[in-house]
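A further point concerns the way the authors explain their paired sequence and structure data. Showing the layout once, in full, would remove most of the difficulty. For illustration, here is how one protein appears when written out as sequence plus structure tokens:
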Amino acid sequence: MKTLAIEREFGSGGREIGKRAAALAGIPYYDGEMLIKEAELKGVSLDLLEEYDEQKTGSILYNIALFANYNQDMNQSKIYEMCCGMQETIRELEMQGPAVFIGRCSTEILKDNPNVVRTYLYSSEEETKIERIMRTEEVTREEARKLMAKKDRQRSSYFKFWTQKKWDDRRNYDLELNTAEFSPDICAQILLAAMKA
């Protein structure tokens, strides 16, 4: 059984699909919150993580401001510790056995490991994503549309910030799956088959 590392569009159902794949495989599931908790348990100081999290790296101007502030407000060693601490946590958890990782650049952190399937989940149906966001986030259609654009922009910026790569570049992944074409259960089964291959 291989580990599964997932990047996903907001509203594509990636979190639900990842959880289902992990349950089908009987392996641990780690999303951003869980990874932060694991890193903190290992003694990694992540007090600056919020400063660089998906919520904060939402624009080119913000990223420029971050780089400009490195030497003024941020301690380089803290940034290095934070980045390496999260990477080390993901690598250590993967070494304990197969798992499902959602986001946090896990597809890049584990890219040299042949026992990892790096996956990008997206949906070709914008309305399907909007309906899902309305349901899960309990927002209006217009709010869902804005939230979808904002979250995808943030995820793209976060990925670019830490990896210097484009988030939606298919060359970063072993598998791309259009969640508009299949139910979450079938998507999870497809991912499980890839993990077993």
Confidence is low (pLDDT under 50) at residues 48-78. The longest helix spans residues 141-163. Residues 96 and 192 are 19 Å apart (CA to CA).
